[in-house]
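Sample 1 of the test manifest.
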Amino acid sequence: MSIEILTLIMLGSMVLLLVIGLPLAFVTGLIAFGFALGLYGPMALPLIASRVYGFVSVYALIAVPMFVLMASVLERSGIARDLFSAMHVLAGNLKGGLAIQTMAVAVLMAAMTGIIGGEIVLLGLVALPQMLARGYDRKLAIGTVCAGGGLGTMIPPSIVLIFYGLTAEVSIGDLFLATIIPGLLLATIYVAYILIRCYLNPELGPPAPTEAGPLTIRDKLLMVRDILLPVMVVGMVLGTIYGGIASVSEAAGMGVVGVLICTCIRKELTWTLIRESLHQTMMTCGVILWLVFGASALIGVYNLMGGIDFVRDLMTGLPFAPIVILLIMMGILLVLGFFIDWIGIMLLTMPIFVPIVRDLAPAFGLDPQWAAIWFGILFCMNMQISYLSPPFGPAAFYLKGVAPPEITLQDIYSSLWPFMGLQILGLALVMKFPQLALWLPILQSVN
Amino acid sequence: MPRLNLIDRMSLLIGEKLSYVFLLSVIITCYEVVMRYVFNAPTTWVHDGATALSATGFLMAGCYCLQARRHIAITVIYDAVPRGVRNVLELINALLVVVFLGLLTWAAMKVAMPAVAWQVWDCRVQFCGFETSAHAWDVPIPAYLKSVLFLAAVAMLVQSLVQLWQTVDGFCRKATS
C-alpha cells in the first residue's frame, strides 16, 4: 500500500477514535500498535514500548514535575493573592489600571510557573472578581485573565519549551532565553490594547477611586514582602539558569525549594499543602507524559513507514517561497490547535516540521540550529492561540471552573477573539523579525 | 461519590504514595547543587537517581489518571449524542482501552524480560544479571525502569478491566431497566 493511502487511513482512524471520545493518549497508542502489527508483525510492538522507556530516561525531563509542583504549591498558597493586592500601586487611577495590574501579576507569575492552568485559575479567583466589582467590561476582564494566564508557558520557565527542546534537540536554556522578548512583547501588546480600549471608552475600565487614608508602616512592609518573595523565587530559578550555574532541571529543583521557603515564611507550609500539591503533580504529569508516550509511539511508527520523509518531500516540493511554507506550517498548527492539546500537536508535527525548518534556514538567513530555536518560539506563540481557541481552548475551561456562575463558556469564548487577534499580531511580528527571539541567545553564545 | 472497589482504591493509593518520588527527586537535586557549590564534592548518583525517581512517577501516574478518568479526551460529540448511543460509545471506548493496554503489557513484558535477563530454560528460571546503565553510578537503572514500565502497564490493564466490567455492568442494567 502506498504511503499516501496509509497516511489517509491513519488520519481517518485518528479522527474517528477521537470523535467517539477515546482519550488522545490511547488513540495515538492504539493506532501506533495497530499499524505496527499490520505492517511489521508482532515483534515491532516491543520496539515501540522501548521508545517509552527511551523517553522517560532523559534527565532534562525531571524539570517537568518540578515546575508543575512549583505551580501547584503556588496555587495553594496566598502568594498570588497578596502579590496582586500589593501590586495595586501600579494601577493607581489609570484608566484600565486594574487590568494592567492583572497583566503585570500574570507576567510575574508566569516567570514562576511553566504551565498553563494554575495561573488562570489564580487570576480568575483573585483578579476577575475585583475587575467585575469595579465595573470593568466583562469581556475585557475575562480576556485579560485568560490571555495573561496563558503567558505561563510563554515566559520562561516553560514546560512547552522543555518538551520542544527534547523533541527538536535544541538547548532548553537557549529556548528559555529566546522566549523572553516575544513573551514580554505579547504582554506589551495586551497592555497597549487594554489602554487604548479604556482611553477610547473609559466605561470599559473605570479608574480606581482614590484610596482612603495613608498606609501604615506595617502595611508597607507587608507589601514589600509580598512583592519581594515572588521576585526572589523568579531570581532563584531564572538566575541559576541564565547565570549558567545549574542545569534547567536543577534550577527547577531550586525553584520548588524557593516556593516552599516562601510558604514557610508566610506560615502556610503544612503537610496537607505538600501532599495535595504532590497529588496534583502526579495527575498532571500522568496526563502529559502518557500523551507523550502515545504520540511519540505514533510518530515513531509513521517514521518507520517513511511517512515523515513523505510529508517533508511534499512540503519542500511545494512551489512556494520558504516564507509561504512557514505560513502553511503555522496554519496547520493553528488549525490543529483548535482540536488537540499542545503536547499532542508538538509530538505529532515537530518531528516533521523541524527538519523542514532546518532545511529552509538559509532562506531566512539563519543557521539551522537557530532556525529550530526560532521555530520553537513560533510554535509556543501559536499554542498561546490554541489555549484560547474554541471549542476546546483550555484557558476557557480553567476559567469557567472558578468564574462566577453567571459567566458561561459562551461568554468566555466570545471575549477571547480580540486577544487571539493580538496573539496573531505578536506571532506575525516574531515571524517577520526572527531577531526578536534570537537576539538574546545569540548574544549569550557570543560571550 | 461512587463506592470504590478494591482495584480503584489500590490505583488511587499507589498513585498518591508514589507522588512522593517527585519530592524526593527535588530534595536530592538540591543536595547535589549544594554539594557541588558549597562542598565542592559533586555526587555521581543524583543525576541517574533523580531521573529514575521521576520516571517511576511518570510511568505509574498513568494508572492514577486512568482511575480518575483524567486522560484528555475530546468529548464534544460524545456529550451531544443521545443517551443510548453514548452508552454504546462508552462500551467501545472501554474495550479499546483494554485492547491497547493488553498490547502494551505484552510489549512491555518483551522489553523488560531481556533487560532483567530472566531466561526460562527447561522450566527452570535461571538468573543471569541485570542490564546496567554504564554511567558513573553503575546500577541497573534500565532494567529497573523497564520493569516499572511493565508494572505500570499491568496496573493500567487491571484498572481498565475493572472499568470495562463496570461499563458492561452499567450497560446491562440500563438495557434491562
